[in-house]
């Protein structure tokens, strides 16, 4: 297979983060600590995972970062927007994710990261209101975001940029005519159309400049036709949506196993308690609806109830998220799964996952920054389905149904990396 020509990752890579809350500050502090104290970046596939090449007998299993040219974490610089003026150190302290011993060694570097004013409309995030916001029309705010990016790139001497949405979940809404074409969208910017969400302004600014973009939240964003059209025009890679971290990550691991062995499922009850800013935002029904849609679609696709109606056709799937301030970022996820086995005998699985939202999300942000930059340097344009491995509701080409099975996603992810390196895909037939 012919190796794809990939430009080398020379110079500095700027990582732009709309939303400098728990996830963004945990990510930045982790990278800065890894430089200063050689702290291991557990959870990062880009940093730690090996990849098999060729038949098993050849025993070729390099690190992924040895197979394809990824940017070094030493070359990363960070810029962010937020509706609160706290610098990254102050924001990290308030987020209460990391211990002081993990913040104090990098305090000076974090304090130097001052957020730009955020684009904000409380109609889209009803539970938050901050003083550090941009003013003016949609067009004016988009232009200001572009100015922020250009100034950052010049000041930090960045050779390349990526942008990853780490902000709060916006309320659920459906695409409308203003979203259906780039011409309609830009007319909406000029007319200050309030159906264009703040997060779309960031996606528009990034894609307009040809910067790779990922949406880490579940709301309507870069998948709209207008922004797909823009990404096609500028050649910017994009991916999303909604980081797959805690409870949904476990679902996409467990559900494929149950289906592979043809074990029936009658009910799957999921609830969460968390007390961070994400939990506060999701306490609003409109924002929760955005999350509910991405979390709920996972089982439908994996179980294929149209093909297996007797096994999964009557599946009752209930999802709850409860804001509980004392828990902070230490989320607790409970699942009850009602199974049906041989001769119709019932069984159950109980799961109690005590996880840390931002600790799980931070390595996802890091991997996406490196792999989106790789995609750009490899000439891969617009929707990057192979990065669906990291999302609850993966973007797909031509609006095809997404694949949610984590192991099928992983195969596609790794085979894409093999193809970029000029290696044959792994099918396991060669091992007969």
Secondary structure blueprint with pairings:
Blueprint: E1 12-18, H1 22-37, H2 45-48, H3 64-67, E2 76-82, H4 88-95, H5 100-103, H6 107-111, E3 116-117, H7 138-155, E4 158-165, H8 182-190, H9 198-208, E5 213-215, H10 225-234, E6 237-240, H11 247-260, E7 264-274, H12 277-282, H13 285-303, H14 309-312, E8 316-323, E9 332-340, E10 346-354, H15 357-377, E11 382-383, H16 406-420
Parallel strand pairs: 1-2, 1-4, 2-3, 4-5, 5-6, 6-11, 7-8
Antiparallel strand pairs: 7-9, 9-10
Helix pairs in contact: 1-4, 1-15, 7-8, 7-9, 8-10, 9-10, 11-13
- Which oligomeric form is depicted? single chain
Major β-sheet strand ordering: 3-2-1-4-5-6-11
Low-confidence stretches: none
Per DSSP, what share of the residues sits in E-state strands of 2 or more residues? 15-25%
Helix content: 25-40%
Q: Which geometry do the CA atoms define?
A: globular
Rounded to the nearest angstrom, the distance between the terminal CA atoms is: 22 Å
What is the fold named in CATH at topology level of the largest domain? Answer: Rossmann fold
Helix and strand content put the structural class at alpha/beta
Structural domain count: 2
How many separate helices? Answer: 16
CATH class of the largest domain: Alpha Beta
Average predicted local confidence, pLDDT: 94
- Sheet having the most strands: 7 strands, parallel
CATH level 4 superfamily of the largest domain: NAD(P)-binding Rossmann-like Domain
Give the total of beta strands.
11
Radius of gyration: 21 Å
By CATH, the architecture of the largest domain is named: 3-Layer(aba) Sandwich
Secondary-structure element order, N to C: EHHHEHHHEHEHHEHEHEHHHEEEHEH
């Amino acid at each position: 297979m012919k190796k794809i020509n990939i430009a080398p990752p020379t110079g500095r890579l700027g990582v732009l983060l709309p939303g400098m809350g728990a996830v963004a500050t945990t990510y930045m502090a982790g990278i800065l600590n890894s430089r200063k104290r050689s702290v291991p970046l557990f959870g990062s596939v880009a940093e730690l995972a090996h990849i098999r090449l060729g038949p098993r007998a050849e025993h070729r299993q390099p690190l992924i970062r040895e197979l394809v040219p990824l940017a070094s974490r030493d070359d990363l610089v960070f810029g962010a927007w937020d509706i609160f003026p706290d610098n990254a150190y102050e924001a990290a302290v308030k987020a209460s994710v990391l211990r002081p011993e993990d913040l104090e060694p990098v305090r000076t570097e974090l304090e130097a990261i001052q957020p730009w004013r955020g684009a904000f409309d409380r109609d889209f995030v009803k539970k938050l209101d901050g003083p550090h916001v941009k003013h003016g029309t949609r067009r004016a705010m988009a232009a200001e975001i572009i100015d922020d990016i250009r100034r950052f790139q010049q000041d930090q001497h960045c050779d390349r940029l990526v942008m990853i949405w780490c902000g709060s979940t916006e309320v659920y809404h459906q695409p409308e005519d203003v979203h259906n074409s780039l011409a309609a969208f830009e007319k909406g910017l000029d007319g200050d159309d309030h159906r264009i969400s703040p997060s779309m302004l960031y996606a528009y600014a990034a894609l307009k400049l040809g910067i790779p973009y990922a949406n880490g939240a579940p709301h309507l964003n870069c998948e709209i036709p207008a922004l797909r059209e823009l990404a096609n025009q500028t050649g910017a890679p994009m991916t999303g949506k909604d980081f797959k971290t805690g409870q949904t990550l476990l679902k996409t691991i467990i559900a494929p196993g149950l289906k592979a062995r043809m074990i029936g499922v009658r009910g799957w009850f999921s609830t969460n308690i968390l007390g961070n800013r994400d939990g506060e935002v999701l306490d609003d029904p409109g924002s929760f609806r955005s999350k509910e849609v991405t979390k709920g679609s996972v089982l439908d696709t994996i179980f294929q109830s149209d093909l297996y109606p007797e096994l999964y056709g009557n599946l009752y799937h209930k999802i709850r998220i409860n804001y509980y301030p004392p828990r902070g970022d230490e989320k607790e996820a409970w699942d009850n799964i009602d199974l049906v086995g041989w001769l119709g005998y019932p069984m159950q699985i109980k799961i109690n996952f005590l996880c840390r939202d931002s600790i799980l999300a931070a390595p996802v942000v890091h991997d996406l920054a490196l792999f989106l930059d790789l995609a750009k340097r490899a000439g891969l344009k617009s929707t990057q389905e192979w990065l669906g491995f990291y999302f609850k509701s993966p973007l797909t080409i031509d609006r095809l149904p997404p694949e949610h099975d984590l192991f099928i996603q992983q195969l596609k992810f790794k085979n894409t990396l093999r193809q970029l390196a000029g290696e044959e895909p792994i099918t396991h037939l060669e091992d007969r």
